[in-house]
Protein 1
Amino acid sequence: MTYDLVALVDGRPSSDDVLAGLAAAGEELGVRAVSGGAVVQLCDEENLPLVSIELPLLVQVPGEVERMLGTAVGSVETPAWWVEIRATARDGAREIAERYANILINRLGGKVWTSAGVELSQRTSEGTD
């Protein structure tokens, strides 16, 4: 079973933000693009995927995040960037996905929703919790 995360970030992730997240996830991991570049996969030494990261999507409609994820996510101000991250059931994949999501939040502000219904972290773009 997969473990899903959505990083709801306050600013559009730049190439530097994505690279920082990839490095934090694990420099020993392989990286490949699939689905015409719409998804980046982090792979183990056998080139088997551990984590898939979709391109960020801009959410502009107030209440749309809550409609999609439920009220447990709390209030999300729009516009926000939705970054979907999916970890496989393989050992260590969940932790890699969490590291990636948390780097985005630490750099850009926002919050992380998980399929377990837990917010891993929350930070405003001004740097306060």
Note: The CA atoms of residues 93 and 111 lie 20 Å apart.
Protein 2
Amino acid sequence: MLRDTYVEINLDHMAYNIRKIRQFVGENVAIAAVVKANGYGHGAVEIAKTIMENGGDCLAVATLTEALELRNVYPEYKIFIMGYTPDEYLEYVIDNNITQCIFSIEQARILNDLSKLKDKKAVVHIKYDTGFNRLGYRDCQESIDEIIEIFKLENIIVEGIFSHFALAGDEANKKQFNDFMNAIDKIEKSGNKLKYKHICDSISAIDYPEFNLNMIRPGAILYGLKSFRKNDIDLKQVLTFKSKIYYIKKIKKGEGVSYNYKWKAHRNSIIGTIPFGYADGYPRNMAGVGMVTINGHRAPIIGVICMDQCMVDVTDIPFVKEGDHVVIYGDGSNNTLDIQEVSKLGDTNKNEIISRITRRTPRVYIKNNKIDKILNYLCEGENESVEYKR
């Protein structure tokens, strides 16, 4: 594996989660599984097959590059770009049979003209803004009129329409949903039919099942992360983050650790150095609040977190030694910190914690309770990956 700091991905847990989501939403609701940001740090290419074989209907990403990475491996999977693709790159969307989000007739016309040249059809989903105020058509009659014009383009297939909840409370959510449905009603009354209509992400899909329509876009719940406020669903955390103690030293009371000596020993102490840092995606603001688990005991992170290493106080851990296993992110068992606890300590959300894990950290994939594959993203040669099968 070439490093003792690695992320472990349990594909059995992921399969369990997607089956639970399918059970919750039923057979008539399509699942657009969100695998942007390298599958929230889990490895989009490596998890895609498990998702699709256990109930996923398509793979949803944010960017063209993410879509192309998946298309290079999975020529038949349906892939949907939820974000903006610049006009000059739209030919890649058509050439690779990727479904594209659009929210302007100008871009629809570019797609239409390119499709004509290639004797193909471009499949799109219209992004409709009901109050999130990020991307999408404004909720007004002028937008409806323009969307209806897009349907008239002969090389465009308007397959779906979608929006996004701001999750600002029940009343705001209900208003957004009603505005969305009113827009759909106007479009379809003009004689244009939409195959897919979707507004729910992970949280809203579980808390507001009445809003699920006929497609949802689960992200966090694929990975076993919960943020529900009303309902619940049984899920298993997919990711753990592990390392080993590389070095142990004793220091005297009053000695400092790491940059600027922001931490000084209040007693004679034993300090362990672990080879992970913010270049692995660990939040730098976890200094002084973060903890890791060693032999079932929690050890506080001390001093400024370095790019490649961090230090922990292991004074109170009996029989600690170099080479001991370290759990950075666990699932809450054996006194480990799960992703939710880590996110609270880091004053952020769970999605950021896992999606920021960098590609220099190897991934170990577990399937049928054994190691299926070890993936190192970094190796000799440009943009290559080395795969070790066991």
Note: The chain has two domains: 11-223, 239-358.
Protein 3
Amino acid sequence: MKKEFDVYEYVSEKATPQVLANHGDEMQKFAAYCDQAKKALDDAEKEESKANGQESLILERQRNAILGLPKEVRFYKQQIKDIIKEMGIGAEWYPHWYDSMEDAIYNEILGFAGLAPWIENRKPEYQYSSSAKMIGGRIYFMIGGKLELQPQSMTSERRAQLRAALLLDDPRKRLNEVYHEVYLQDGSRVTIYNEGLAKRGQDCIVFRKFVVQNYSFEMQAEKHTIPAELVPVFKAMVKVGYNVAFVGPVRSAKTTFLTTWQSYEDDSLEGVQVESDPEIPLHEIMPNAPIMQFVPNEDDLRSVIKRIMRSDADYIIMAEARDGVALHTAVKAANKGTRRVKMTFHTTDVIDFAYDVAEEIINSYPNMDLGSYIIKTAKSFDYILQFAQLEKNKSEKRLIGMWEMRYDLTARTIHMLQICKYDYDTDAWTFAFDIGEDKRQIGHIVSPKAFAEMENILRDLSQKYPMQGNYKYVPFCQALLRG
């Protein structure tokens, strides 16, 4: 039996102590208004269902309203506007995180409730906020790189309604399953952790909004994400067409920098972009470039690898290489001679990059040889750019290392050379000059002018801001290759 809407439970769960202390009476009155409006809508829809027997269409309309589809939102807001007028409460108090009484009641009974301001970017700081999180009834918004507890919260009944609406579109998903991942109309990812996995009463819903920004290298330098001296170097590297991996932990600006890098690519070249999430809108960033964008799930990716490889693309972008299937696609493309391959990869240990990638591939393809894929990975990527967010201010991102991965075919040796290093104490970068022969050959063949500029600047930087200590490393997996 469905639990009745309880005003006092609603108030106790809805308002934080601060809100109750300041507006306790108003919150109770507002909760009562929501209760009355909800009852009026329910009664109207019961009558509608009796009249035409279209209960499934009403449920679909409710779901679409919760997901923010304009037609359904307009329909219910008009209904609520009429109810507010009939009740005579248009000038009454409502919680400050909403825009109007109509907006407040709509979101409390049909929309995203206290999450609505973040989802709809109602403040400038929400526009570039990448995530929001609900733990139990508590709501947090990511602001300036930190999760901030909001004054609004959500009842257990309202959370259950929201979860049910989010899952209606896929009959394969069951409400009693402990984990779900769904997508909103704008491509935002919603991850649901139900009780059974989450602690009782602490079910979680995580919203990930894709706010990848299309910066220029100059803008990245202004934000101090990269040293300004490397701007012409990066532009030259794009022209040469090196294969590049952008690595680091979550929220370290990997995808943003990949997007920046890609925006300098020759838009006459044919590209293929593969993502696990619809995160990078290349059709908007490079509207004239012939780039095919695919968003397959893991099972689909296995089956479409051959089709991707047959697409005659000049380059491949693996926007987020989460697993061995995605990594195998990128490595296979590079080993077939494809240049300008780009990907992001979650790791903090760049020295063992080749091993980490190969291990993920072997986990997905157990019949393949680990040593062979270590070598293939080492041959696949020319440079690795390592990013991190600063602990003292997580909204600040830094390029903390630029590495050349070098494989000696004759000696079967791998070296990792750090040619740019970030110093946390001085908030500045130092450099070492060392360019492998294979990188020189690529540069001389593709764009001698761009390579010469890159070489000269890196040499000058190593003299002006010399790196102290060792910059050349042998990864531990080298011992596996000797075996």
Note: The chain is about 45% helix and 20% strand.
